[in-house]
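Hi P.,

Sorry for the delay on this. The queue was packed all week, but I finally got your sequence through. Input first:
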Amino acid sequence: MKKYIAYVLCIAAAGICLSGCSKTVEQKNESLHVYAGLNDQIMNYAVEKFKDTYPDIPVTFTQWEGDNVEEIYDYDQQLAAQLMSGEGADVFFLQGYWDIDKLLAAGAFADLTEIYDSSGVFHDEDIRDVVMDAGVIGGKRVFLPMDCSIPLLITTEEALQETGFDAKKCTDFDSFMEESGKFMLGGNYDRRLFQTDITARGCLYWAGYPIVEDREIVWDMEETRKYYEWYQEFYKRENGDGIYAGGDLSCAADVRDKECLFADPMMWESIYAIRALHTVGEPYVLPIYNRDGGITAMMDRAAAVRANSENLGNVKKFLEILFDGDTMRAFGSHNWKEISVRRSVNENDFNYLDKVWFRGEATGFPNDLPKLEKEEFDAYYAYADQIDKVVYAHEWMRDFRGQMDAFLRGEASYEEAAENAKKKLEFYLSE
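Then the structure:
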């Protein structure tokens, strides 16, 4: 109940902000207020650099310190309400459990186009423009993405040969569905396709199907029918129970032990999965390509600014420090499980590969994993250059998927489930 109340407060506050955010805010630039959530080390670095560079500007730095996840969630939700009512931080990272779409509709975030266009920090060859441009919504640059994740499946050459799965045929999402469908329906289906059901569920994002754009439903029900029929086949074969084991080297262990064909760990955990699988065979990495043959990335961290901030001049100075290459490459600044908006950040990650973050004894792998060769590391991160679309998690997707689950379970026809899902979307967009 506490979470729900905090969520309502957040949206209500955004509604209050709606009328005021459309007006020009007088800029005073007398101070700067920055908020950082749990483990946002880069904010600490940026604040300290800002204080050193601009000692005459008073800085308020609000950061959560603690390890109670429930309390952190509630605090962030209450902070969201404070931010959107014009009383909180000037600069903050978006939180994944905020309803970003409703906050955008309420005009809760400042348009950063002028700041972005006038700063050289965002315009060098090190920046992945396609990732950064994910922050442009409705013609306004409302947030600045810092990193994202891409769907990379990890297996071994030996597993592909044993199952007859031809990964080289998977050049787009349709061909991936076709090849994986053959595997599921074939006589060599002796292991799960994926380690977790989350991978199949996430393919609605990874495939790049348009559902809602600019708060308008653009979903073509027939276009996604093939995907849901493919997903239903996976769902039936996995008995719909969903296996969510992950972390450490369990993903690599499941591939090794023939529990699944593909593991889909987080980015940095994928590196260690590859190193672990080197002890039993030849690792193989296969992206889940979208329908156009590119790669759809999911935005992770992104900086945003309160719409009615009176300190946009100071905000610009801070954002230039926050996104500076030296700040982003500093130890602890980067989420190693993600693709950075700066190429040099991921290139720098190779220097940390000798560190052992995962212990292998529990899963039967040696603690001293084989070192990843630089060529293999470069090939792994080269997939980031194939990103052609970046999305963020939508709150409406939860109810949408819930309605479509009725089809997966065989409780409704595709048409019935799709109509109910569309009604859920219409209700969400009408609020």
